[in-house]
Specification:
With 631 residues, the protein is mainly α. The chain has 4 domains: 4-106, Winged helix-like DNA-binding domain superfamily/Winged helix DNA-binding domain (Arc Repressor Mutant, subunit A); 171-268, Tetratricopeptide repeat domain (Serine Threonine Protein Phosphatase 5, Tetratricopeptide repeat); 286-498, Serine Threonine Protein Phosphatase 5, Tetratricopeptide repeat (Alpha Horseshoe); 505-630, no CATH class. The chain contains 29 helices and 5 strands. Strand 1 (4-6) and strand 2 form a beta hairpin.
């Protein structure tokens, strides 16, 4: 039984389903809390007695044994009689608590996280959400609890301040202001929140308010402590008065450069062709920014392709189409209709290219066809990928080759169990990208490597890819990469048999929150629901949600598990994509439950090439466990 313990508020324990465990009286909770404070070290019975009673009674040791026995029964109700306890263990002269699933420990890790701003903000939000009141709230006056309460309270204050700093680093100063106002009112002797508040106000255009806050901080410090502001506050006040450029929000200086550069481009290259080609270059950068950037890039890229075709110059059109070599990792298009239009334009342009067109131009069009035809499994797309790769190798052009190999990757889904083939493609993309400084495709190579390692449960290798991806995301400002590494870590936890259902579910909920602003509907639609279903099936729990319509593109394969009257024979073959194994596994599970031999044979035949893999884990997102178990 997996148990989590909470001390960030009243002392509490929960079982694997998240239900509160009754802990009897206050002495029982105090024993548990005192063992939490010891952080796994043994607490002698004599020390426990001295901490529980100001003047320990004669039978204190016996009473403590009674408390511990009751706690063991509550925390491990399924433990067979006369077997050693796993959570509260007897060691030498006392007892020790053997679990790391304590909310205070989770909070400490979040509060001390060294991450780029976006990941830091998510970690701090998750950590602060664990607080249900003052730490060890039931034992506020206990001498043994005071140092730990004070330590955790200080960590909490720092976490609030680090969260505000992360918002400022992300250019979200206005969001930081309300919490900082409350924080400075509650803790007026702390200089850091005053500094952050003044800076946030300045960055939202409220210079006068920023100066007013700095003067209020000076008055508070002098009135309460008889101190002058420290150097950080003094320097900030001077900088605000001077309107120092160094106080600008991230990106303000870049915005000035951008405006000048675009104006210079319009003066020097006013023609339609150069503008279209330049626009595609901008869209390439916009596509990796996250938020609204990706859908905007798709929209403007499609418009650029249409405009280029209207000009009637096939070579220009080819350059406009082929220049958008944005790495693609997910096998379901975010906008299938738009992808189909781009493919159609690329095929028309291929037919119209004049003799003597550089072969690299043709290869880029072919790679575009292969990438944009993701998930359809068409022979035409596979042939386009193969030809693009052949041309790129002949030209010995690394940038073209990684683009062509991205197309090859997208066409490596003809049947299940091809993660090994994709791993080889990803390794070559990674090698080329590292040697030639192609940062975006280096990220792609690591993502493919992560997915392929997950498929065969090689999580040591996958962890290495994830760590490198986080580093690249921070260095090159690629927030979309964080979406995939966060989902990977949820999958990683879901495959950890020691992790509780509650912790696994919380990890997936955190991952799902990132999808709302990712701009990737092809990835996000139905995915949180699918993750919940997979996790609950693994734990033998009823599915949530139980409405098939909520599963979006996965509905045909989920429905037979949710509705007993669904016709298994009418379930179509899944698309050739990263979740094909998961969809076949869902069909196999439904067939086994109903005793439908024909449907089970069909699913098993489809899954046979993936017999050594985890069903669904090739996505790097979800898993239904070993294919051999579900098929």
């Amino acid at each position: 039984m997996s148990v989590s313990v909470g001390v960030l508020g009243p002392v509490q324990a929960w079982d694997a389903a998240g239900a509160a465990i009754p802990l009897k009286g206050p002495r029982h909770r105090e024993v548990l809390a005192r063992l939490v404070v010891a952080r796994g070290r043994v607490v002698p019975v004599a020390v426990l007695a001295a901490d529980l009673w100001e003047d320990p009674p004669e039978g204190a040791a016996g009473a403590i044994r009674t408390f511990v026995a009751a706690l063991r029964r509550a925390l491990e109700p399924d433990r067979p009689p006369r077997t050693p306890a796993a959570l509260i263990v007897t060691a030498g002269p006392g007892y020790a608590l053997r679990t790391a699933d304590v909310d205070a420990r989770h909070f400490e890790r979040a509060a001390g996280a060294a991450e780029p701003p976006a990941r830091l903000l998510a970690a701090l939000d998750a950590g602060l959400a664990l607080w249900r009141g003052p730490a060890y709230a039931d034992f506020a006056e206990a001498p043994w609890a005071r140092p730990e309460r004070d330590r955790l309270a200080e960590l909490r204050l720092r976490a609030v301040e680090r969260r505000a700093g992360a918002l400022l680093d992300l250019g979200r100063a206005a969001e930081a202001v309300p919490d900082l106002v409350a924080h400075t009112r509650a803790h007026p002797w702390r200089e850091e929140p005053w500094r952050l508040l003044a800076l946030a106000l300045y960055r939202t255009g409220r210079q006068a308010d920023a100066l007013s806050v700095l003067r209020e901080a000076r008055a508070e410090l002098a009135g309460r402590l008889g101190l002058d502001p420290g150097p950080a506050l003094r320097d900030l006040e001077t900088a605000v008065l001077r309107q120092d450029a160094g106080l600008a929000a991230p990106g303000d200086a870049a915005a000035r450069v951008w405006a000048g550069a675009t104006a210079a481009h319009d003066r020097a290259a006013p023609g339609a062709g150069p503008r279209l080609e330049a626009a595609v270059g901008l869209m390439r950068g916009l596509a990796v920014t996250g938020g609204d950037g990706l859908p905007a890039a798709r929209e403007h890229r499609a418009a650029a392709v249409e405009a280029a075709e209207e000009l009637g110059d096939p070579e220009l059109t080819a350059r406009v189409i082929g220049a958008y070599d944005v790495p693609a990792i997910w096998t379901r298009s975010d906008d299938p209709a738009q992808s189909a239009r781009v493919v159609a334009a690329a095929l028309r342009t291929l037919d119209r290219l004049p003799p003597g067109t550089p072969p690299g131009t043709r290869a880029r069009l072919l790679a575009t066809v292969a990438v944009e035809s993701r998930g359809d499994g068409s022979p035409r797309a596979r042939a386009a990928a193969e030809e693009a790769e052949r041309i790129a190798r002949e030209l010995e052009d690394p940038a073209l080759l990684v683009f062509a190999l991205n197309g090859v990757y997208m066409q490596c889904f003809g049947h299940t169990g091809l993660s090994g083939r994709r791993a080889l493609v990803g390794a070559e993309i990674l090698d080329l990208s590292v040697r030639h400084g192609l940062a975006s495709h280096e990220i792609l190579g690591h993502l493919i490597g992560l997915q392929s390692a997950c498929a065969v449960a090689d999580f040591g290798v996958a962890d290495g890819h994830a760590a490198r991806l986080d580093d690249l995301a921070a260095r090159h400002d690629r927030p979309l990469t964080t979406v995939f590494t966060t989902w990977y870590r949820a999958l990683r936890l879901a495959e950890d048999p020691a992790a509780s259902f509650t912790a696994q579910r919380a990890a997936y909920l955190d991952a799902a929150r990132l999808l709302g602003t990712a701009g990737m509907p092809g990835l996000s639609r139905g995915l949180p629901e699918l993750a919940s279903l997979c996790l609950r099936l693994r734990h033998g729990r009823p599915p949530e949600p139980d409405d098939p319509a909520l599963y979006g593109p996965y509905e045909p394969w989920v429905r037979p598990l949710l509705q007993a009257d669904a016709d298994l024979g009418a379930v179509p073959d899944p698309p050739c994509d990263l979740l094909a194994e998961a969809m076949w596994a869902l069909l196999a599970l439904a067939a086994r439950r109903r005793g439908d031999a024909a449907a089970l044979r069909r699913a098993r035949a489809a899954l046979a090439p993936a017999s050594g893999e985890l069903a669904g884990a090739a996505s790097g997102l979800v898993s239904l466990g070993p294919v051999a178990d579900v098929g």
